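Q: Got a minute? One more chain.
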Amino acid sequence: MANSQPSSSSAVRPTSTRIAPTAPERVSLGKQANTHDPSSTATSFFLGILFASFPYDYPILWTSATAPETYFSLLETHLRFIHASPPIIPRILHIVIAVGLLGFLLKLYKPSESNMLFDGASLVLYMCGIIVYISNIVKGLRVVQAGAYGAKEESTILAAGEEEGEAIGREDSLRVLAASDTILALVLVGVLVLQAGQWYAERKEAQETEKMTTKEKGTGRNGSHRNAAAKKKQ
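A: Always. Here it is, folded:
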């Protein structure tokens, strides 16, 4: 009785195995995932807001020609409209600020050398931006809304009844507010430059690691081929 041969359809098919990524590849993938972090997104969001205010700040800050009186009235109307926006608008703004701050703090949890250098400096600049926002921009918007130009701050009443302190007028107050927007924009650009530098440094490090791994693999294969050839000669 002839033995039944297995049909081609019932033959065992080779299973495809998925090769797990090596350690350098996993490091590279992790670094690529960290490039899209919420801190950079929040920073870009704030820069977009400041860019929208740039047409209002340009005539009183970046031109030598004297701005007309009607322009200052237009700027005041714009700033009062911003300050009187619905409560949901500043809440969203403050949530985005908190998200950016939380993103930097999470990146500094168990930090590497790159995180300490770039993310640490970015966090310092980000906190400087928050201080400028609270001390200059928010305070300036409140002054514009109240129309309390020329209010003397930290004035001391002397015995003769005089007050020490210099009052800031309407035009100077609006120029200070425009200058604060520029300072904040420069600080946020510095944050993005540091984040871009971190991405570039990590990318170059991943490329160098990949080259070293490929070189080591090539050296190992050449050694195995030489050993096999030596065994055949024997």
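A: The radius of gyration is 32 Å.
Q: Perfect, thanks.
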